[in-house]
Amino acid sequence: MERTESNWVTVKFVDFWPTFDVEHNKFVDALRSKYRVTVLPTEGDEVPDLLFYSRCGNGRHLSYDCIRIYFTGENDCPDFNECDYALSFYPLTLGDRHLRYPLYMLYEYDRIGTPEAVSDSDALGRGFCSLLMRNSTNCDPRRLEIIDCMESYRPLAYGGPFRNNTGGCVDEKIPFISRFKFNLALENSLVEGYVTEKILEPLVASTVPVYWGDDAVKSEFNPEAFVNAGDYDTPEALVEAVKRLDNDPGAYLRMLRAPKLIKGCAPDYDGMLADFLCRIAATRRKYLVRYGEQNVLHRRGRTVAMIRKSPLLMKILGRLGNC
Fold first, then answer.
1. 113-257 falls under which CATH superfamily?
2. Where are the domains of the chain?
3. What is the pLDDT of residue 289?
């Protein structure tokens, strides 16, 4: 293909988490459905056509005057005073500037149709229930209530930093989860549209998820394949439902073997992502401006970013905060 401005696009990724692969990811794949894509090095001053940034790091995205696309895997709402476009969990409508694209699409979603193979006898002979959790202080209290209530029925296997009783944090989540009949898949908060990889991982591991989170999960995954805490009024009622499954091999296996997705109803998020990003690449339309109140907010954001980059200033502010 002959290189022209219309068929090539340069991209850069900044402020993403350390393990994010800037060369091989869903965003680059989506753009490559119609464009020749060059990924610029994260470290460096070259300005791309499209800058992707996330919520980690120290605000490097603020130093780029180009089309900025924000991606969040958390329950924060995009700030459209900082980004031209955004990808998040929220079911937002803001012209052509936002697409709901859940974080679980970056995980094991491509394996949802071929979960781990396990025989009936092995499935029934597994341990009771696993939990992989880090955040126990900045989460909805109902999360801890469910954990404690489930623990009162049978001991849980804690494979993450929270209450670890497996000899240390596990390296591979799917193999660990697959060793148990159930997995407590609990979001850190109940926010509209906020459905993460927590429901996806046990489904891929051929384990029954016990899920707590937004009811949007029931339109994206088959409700017959998991226990939904939202269907029960109290944690105690939820645990009773799990207890019945735990003691009824037939009912448990029916839930375990149920299709993971609702046939014909699973959203084509990758197709929507390709349409969204290729439209941005085609129009090259910027929404952010460097004047008026947006410019005030931009300057304020850059000042905060500069402070965050300075260990000395952060140390001083920390001491002032303790005064």
1. Glycosyl transferase family 10, C-terminal domain (3.40.50.11660)
2. 8-103+270-288, 113-257
3. 72
pLDDT of residue 295: 57
**Alpha carbons 225 and 232: distance in angstroms, whole number:** 16
- pLDDT of 323: 47
Determine the pLDDT at residue 113. 87
C-alpha distances (whole Å) from 131 to each of 144, 148, 178, 183, 185 are 12, 12, 12, 6, 7
Name which CATH class applies to 8-103+270-288: alpha beta
Look up tokens 């396990």; give the residue.
118
Which regions of the chain are under pLDDT 50?
1-3, 323
pLDDT at 308: 57
